[in-house]
Structure formats: C-alpha cells, structure tokens
C-alpha cells in the first residue's frame, strides 16, 4: 500500500485529490495539511511514501521552499508537486529543488494516480511537455534569463502581478502581509532592471511566463 500525504491550502482541492487517490486500491491517504506548519506536525505523527505538495502555500514558505527544506533534512518520502501553474513556469524549478514529479491540477485524474505510483517507486514522473522542456534545456545554448535569478517567491510575485492581480490580492492569496509582497515586488524590479508593473507585465509576456 502506497501511503500518501497531501499539502494544499484549499480544502476542496485536497478533497478532490483525496477522493481520486482513494479510488485506487493500492493507495492510502494518511494525512492532510493546509500549510507548512500543519505539514511539519503531520510528519512528526505519520510516515508516508509520497507527499503531494502544492506550490502556492500560505505564509512565509512556498511549496518550493518546502522542497528545499525536505531535501536538506534528508526525509525519505518522495514529493510530487501538483499545481495550478503551467509546467513551463515551475516544473523545472520543482524538479531541481528535489521533486520527483510535477502534475498540473487541471490534468486527467488518472495521470495523478499514475504519477503517485511512479514516484513511490523512486522514479521521476514528467509529462511529455516537461520531457520536451528538459531536452531543450540540455541542447540549447546556455543563456540565463534574468528571471532565473529570482527567488521562488519573487518569480511567483512577478507572474501574479503580470496576470493583473493587485498587491492586496496577492497578499490575501499567499497569506502574506501587503508590505511583504511590496518587498518582493521591489526586488523583482531591481533584479530585472524594470521600472513599474507595466514593464513587469511586458517582460513576463515576452518570456512566456504569462499568456498574452
């Protein structure tokens, strides 16, 4: 039996994932968490084979931050990232941070089950789209985009602002203070040598971080 733990701040999303996985005869969901603090408590109480982790978590740590922490601590479970963000925004970052797979929330439920089974065996799970991105990253000339220098939270802030969200909306969604979000915004502007939100939006569109 594959023991799975879920970490997502939306209860309805967790329920959907739990119901999907529970239908599989070889998978058991042993715990759920809504943020990093709850996850730490669960990890002290239960062991699991696979952690299904969302990128967009509330508070000071994103899912990518959690990946780095778990990797540094050498915890034995494998992490499958399940996110609403398209593969081209976060998949490679997640894999580099230690994830064993990346699945979009809008995908086929059967894909999620297959991903959990694959990851539980210690094998990487990537969609054809991610596989193509990995091949291109290996064969393309090494040219670093400026946004690759951003931290995970800074990139998240850039994408959300470029998607038309206000700082107050971002703060509420990420459960951060508006002041903290403003700090991330300022860092993005400085690192990318941009002047305002409009230039951030143009940059994000040009680099395929958001749709036009």
TrEMBL record:
Keywords: DNA-binding, Phosphoprotein, Transcription, Transcription regulation
SMART domains found in the cross-reference section: HTH_LUXR (SM00421), REC (SM00448)
High-level lineage: Bacteria, Pseudomonadati, Pseudomonadota, Betaproteobacteria, Burkholderiales
Pfam families attached to this UniProt entry: GerE (PF00196), Response_reg (PF00072)
Gene3D superfamilies per the UniProt record, alphabetical: 3.40.50.2300
UniProt-listed PROSITE patterns: HTH_LUXR_2, RESPONSE_REGULATORY
GO molecular function: DNA binding
Record carries keyword Ubl conjugation: no
The protein, known as: Response regulator transcription factor
Boundaries of every Response regulatory domain copy: 3-120
Naturally occurring in which organism (per UniProt): Piscinibacter aquaticus
Record field: transmembrane: none
Domain HTH luxR-type, residue spans: 143-208
Superkingdom of this protein's organism: Bacteria
GO annotation, biological process: phosphorelay signal transduction system; regulation of DNA-templated transcription
Keyword DNA-binding among UniProt keywords: yes
SUPFAM superfamilies for the chain: C-terminal effector domain of the bipartite response regulators, CheY-like
Positions carrying 4-aspartylphosphate: 54
């Amino acid at each position: 039996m594959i023991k799975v733990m879920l970490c997502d701040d939306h209860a309805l999303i967790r329920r959907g994932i739990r119901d999907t996985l529970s239908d599989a005869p070889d998978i058991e969901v042993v715990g759920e968490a809504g943020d990093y603090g709850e996850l730490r408590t669960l990890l002290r109480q239960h062991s699991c084979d696979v952690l299904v982790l969302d990128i967009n978590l509330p508070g000071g740590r994103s899912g990518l931050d959690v990946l780095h922490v778990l990797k540094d601590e050498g915890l034995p479970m494998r992490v499958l990232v399940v996110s609403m963000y398209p593969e081209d925004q976060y998949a490679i970052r997640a894999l580099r941070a230690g994830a064993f797979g990346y699945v979009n929330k809008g995908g086929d439920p059967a894909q999620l089950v297959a991903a959990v089974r694959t990851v539980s065996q210690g094998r990487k799970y990537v969609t054809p789209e991610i596989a193509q991105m990995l091949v291109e990253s290996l064969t393309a000339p090494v040219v670093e985009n400026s946004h690759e220098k951003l931290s995970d939270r800074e990139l998240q802030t850039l994408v959300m602002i470029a998607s038309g969200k206000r700082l107050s909306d971002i703060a509420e969604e990420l459960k951060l203070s508006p002041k903290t979000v403003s700090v991330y915004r300022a860092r993005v502007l400085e690192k990318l040598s941009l002047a305002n939100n409009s230039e951030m939006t143009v940059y994000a569109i040009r680099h395929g971080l958001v749709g036009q």
